[in-house]
Structures are given as C-alpha cells and as structure tokens.
C-alpha cells in the first residue's frame, strides 16, 4: 500500500524554482532515502510535503489528498517532519519539548502512552527530563527532536539530515534507531548527507539534482551505480571488492 504519493511537485520562491516536477512514492513500512548534493531541493521537498513550503502538484497521504492543507492538519493525519538542525526549544526542558510534540493531539491518554514509549526508546531523555534542552549534547538533541516528533503519533516520519554535525559513533546509533523505528511499524522518508549509510538501511532511494529527480531504484541498485558512487558516495567503482569501501 502506498503511504505517500507525490506527483508533479513544484516549489517556487519568487523567481526561483527550487523543485521541478517531482514524483515519488513511499510504501507502508518502507525506509526510502532521498539523496542529492547540497541545494538539490531535498529539504524543500520535505517541507512542501508537510505544508511548510509553497507548492503546486498533488500530494496524497494514506490515500487522501493533503495538497494545500495546513501543517497542523497534516500532522494530525499522521505525517511529521524532523527538520534539519533539530530545531528544539533550547530554553525549555526536555519534558516541555516532548509535550509540545503532542500539541496537535486531543487524546491525552494516547499522548501519555506516547511519552512513555518515547522515554523507553530514549532513556537519556527520561534521565534529563527536567534539564534545559539546550544543554544536551548534539546526539541527545537529535534524540529529543525525533522523540518530540514521535509524540504526534506519526504513521510516516520525514527525517531531514539526522546525522548532521554528529560524531561517527553517534551517527551509527541514530541509524540503528531508524531501523528500530521501522521494526515498530513506522514508515520513513529519509534525507541524509551520508548517502552510503542511508542506502545501507533504506529499501529504495531517489536521487535529486538541481530540483529534479534524476534517478530512482532499489537501494542495492543505487549503491552499485557508478553515477551514484562518483557523485554521492565520494568514490568510483574499482572492480571486485569495491563495496567494502562504501
């Protein structure tokens, strides 16, 4: 079943067209990676999907059109974005940040269940619930940003550059977390600067350049692509054994 379907998506900021005719699909239960160089239009695409960028085209979520709807309604339907740079509220406590994540919900009991699940998933957030969020480490802030998004009870989670600025070991932890979220039944659309790591955990992927979609396919096929390797994995294929270097 298609969870998200985007057709003919255009995004324009005044005279600048940032996204041109994007088509993409995410099936229920998948991790789909959206790759491309800086400025390719990846983050703009995610913002357009959740109503945070001016867009034309058609966007369907769980079989219903959400094009033109406001962000609050889109979140209430079960589609949530974790933005690039985390965007937590640094002066508020960890607990207050999580509470804000449930702002669009009307079911208090359900929100409390989500809080319990988030704190079980991220024990450090439970330990530091009363601490100002701005005093957390970068990795902990990323956990908080994801936890805050999970408080809205999403069916589809959009993750924008979750590894940005994090140490390699923390990045490994974040990608392990993404796989655990998938195992819990969450569908994920992932924008990620580390293309090799993204393709390691993704089922399928798309590649953008200059606001357009230029390639799509199974993650394994994209990893094996000479074009993707040169442009986004930082290396060229070197015959047998090259995959170990990705």
Can you describe what's shown?
The chain is of the alpha/beta class and about 250 residues long. It has two domains: about 1-80 and about 155-165 and about 185-240, P-loop containing nucleotide triphosphate hydrolases (Rossmann fold); about 85-155, no CATH class. It is about 35% helix and about 25% strand. The chain contains ten helices and ten strands. It has helices spanning about 40-50, 70-75, 95-100, 110-120, 125, 140-150, 170-185, 195-200, 220-225, 225-230, and strands at about 1-15, 15-25, 30-35, 55-60, 65, 80, 155-160, 185-190, 205-210, 210-220. The strands form two sheets. A six-stranded mixed β-sheet has the order 6-7-8-3-9-10, with helices on both faces. Strand 9 (about 205-210) and strand 10 (about 210-220) form a beta hairpin. The longest helix has 16 residues, at about 170-185.
SSE layout and pairing:
Blueprint: E1 2-13, E2 16-27, E3 31-36, H1 42-49, E4 55-61, E5 64-65, H2 71-77, E6 79-82, H3 94-101, H4 108-121, H5 123-127, H6 138-150, E7 156-160, H7 168-183, E8 187-191, H8 195-201, E9 204-209, E10 212-218, H9 219-224, H10 226-232
Parallel strand pairs: 3-8, 3-9, 6-7, 7-8
Antiparallel strand pairs: 1-2, 1-4, 4-5, 9-10
Helix pairs in contact: 3-6
């Amino acid at each position: 079943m298609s969870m998200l379907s985007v057709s003919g998506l255009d995004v324009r900021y005044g005279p600048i067209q940032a996204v041109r005719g994007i088509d993409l699909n995410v099936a229920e239960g998948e991790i789909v990676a959206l790759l491309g160089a800086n400025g390719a239009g990846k983050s703009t695409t995610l913002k357009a999907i959740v109503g945070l960028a001016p867009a034309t085209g058609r966007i369907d979520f769980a079989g219903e059109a959400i094009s033109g709807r406001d962000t609050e309604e889109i979140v209430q339907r079960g589609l949530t974005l974790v933005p690039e740079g985390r965007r937590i509220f640094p002066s508020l406590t960890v607990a207050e940040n999580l509470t804000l994540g449930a702002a669009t919900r009307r079911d208090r009991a359900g929100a409390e269940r989500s809080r319990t699940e988030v704190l079980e998933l991220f024990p450090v957030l439970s330990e530091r619930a009363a601490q100002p969020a701005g005093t957390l480490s970068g990795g902990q802030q990323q956990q908080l940003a994801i936890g805050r998004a999970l408080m809205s009870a999403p069916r589809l989670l959009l993750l924008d550059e979750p590894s940005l600025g994090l140490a390699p070991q923390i990045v490994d932890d974040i990608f392990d977390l993404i796989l655990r979220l998938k195992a819990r039944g969450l569908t994920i659309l992932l924008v990620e600067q580390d293309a090799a790591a993204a393709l390691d955990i993704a089922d399928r992927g798309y590649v953008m350049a200059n606001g357009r979609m230029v390639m799509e396919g199974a993650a394994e096929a994209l990893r094996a692509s000479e074009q993707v390797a040169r442009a986004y994995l930082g290396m060229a294929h070197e015959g047998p054994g090259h995959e170990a270097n990705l």
